[in-house]
Amino acid sequence: MTAVAEAPAKTGAQGVARGGLANMVGSALAGGTGVAVTWIVARALGAEHAGAFFAATAAFVLVGGLAKLGTQTGLVYWPARLRATGRDHLLGACLRTGLTPVLVLATLLGAGMWFGASSIAGLTAGGSPEVVAGVKMLALFLPLQALTDALLTATRGYKAMRPTVTLDRVLRSTLQLLCVGAAGVAALWTGASLPAFAFAWAVPYLPVSILAALALRKIYLAGKPERFRSRRSERLDLRREFWRFTGPRALASVAQLALQRVDVLLVAALGGLAAAAVYAVAGRFVVLIQFANQGISQSVQPRLAEALAVGDRDTANHLYRTATGWLVLVTWPINLLVILFAPLYLGLFGNHYRSGTPVVVVLACAMLVATGCGMVDMVLAMAGRTSWNLYNVLVALVVTIGLDVLLIPRYGATGAAIGLACALVANNLLPLVQVARAARLHPFGRGTLTAGALTVGCFGVLPRVVTAVTGAGPTGLALATGLAVAAFGTGAWLLREPLALDAFKPHKLMSRRTG
Known about the structure:
Layout: H1 2-67, H2 71-84, H3 91-115, H4 117-125, H5 129-156, H6 162-190, H7 194-202, H8 205-222, H9 232-271, H10 273-282, H11 285-309, H12 313-340, H13 342-347, H14 357-372, H15 376-382, H16 386-411, H17 413-438, H18 446-470, H19 474-494, H20 506-514
């Protein structure tokens, strides 16, 4: 009986492994190119103009998040739920319900951003004409950014991870690096121009949005059910249910983006553009962590929605705990190494940025807590508690804004890091308690605890012991890192069973299918 019960859970974990591995590889590429783009901008524009660029792109992402209306959750949750409950003839209506408002609102907000460019620039960068031109340039691409994300979210609702990996993680990030790199080279002869860098950063959304639309059309037509006609009453009921679920998530997603981006804007406004550049550069590694989180959670999301839709709590718990163990295994080494190498890492962007070392340490410690809770925010949403999700994010947003206003004038970028760290901890511990009480789910399984102990031992304790003996110079750090990686690889192999790493074996996946 136990073996039969465990089979769906293990099969689900193998499906997550297939999609998650590809997504994590793509996310690693996207994170790496993002760091490279940050380096180019920091070097080419200088601290003041780089701070203005980071503030403008933060505003772009924040407004784009508003335009998406929470469909990052709704367009995964509802297609998965419709298929699981035998209502797949409503899939077309579901896609239209989610995508059409996004396009309309994104166009309106893009126009608003264009005409309000002077006000946006005045709040964060003193109203410089060059910054105004950069904001206007980004406004042109806002509808494409929002639509691209919504289209790719809809493909994940069909459990298709390839479009997200190939189009967003690989194509968009590669084009972004190439275009920004070209702008950096051109700046050597013509001088650095913020609008040129803004155009280079945003223009990849044009081809990616077209390809994302074609990918969704292909997936929809391939899975179109024989019965595809629906009654008007069914469509009206679906729209009400869709937006009753997605509405709170729309506000929560905006608050979540504000939580991630408002600190850059506040540092620019309260601490100056140079401090904003230091803060943005020092916190850039967080994007790597977020990409890894997305790489796993986006693969888990449709399967978790299906399991919870039919009341299969055992499978849901197995997916959540297994995925959290993998997330810890991938992200905790990054956090611990970033703490170890903070001065060297920041020095790559210029000596001025070494002052951001405390920012790196504070944010890395907060990310250890956040990733240790797994993708708890998504789990709460997939359990149907989107209103709770909204309350949690609003609490976290109040925390970060309140602490930023108090601390940035005195401590600069470090004050913003403290504010964001406290908000991240609150935004993960609150839903962790709620998920445990309301859905009886938690991430602390055997795999999570094993992954945590292994990574702390290899990348937290061992490097400190080595550098205490050899010193913290280049030779000592290189030796410490080499020993940590070797010990980690050996430990992961020996502990592959509790870590559920066998799910990544291709031959095992095939034998499960044919067995």
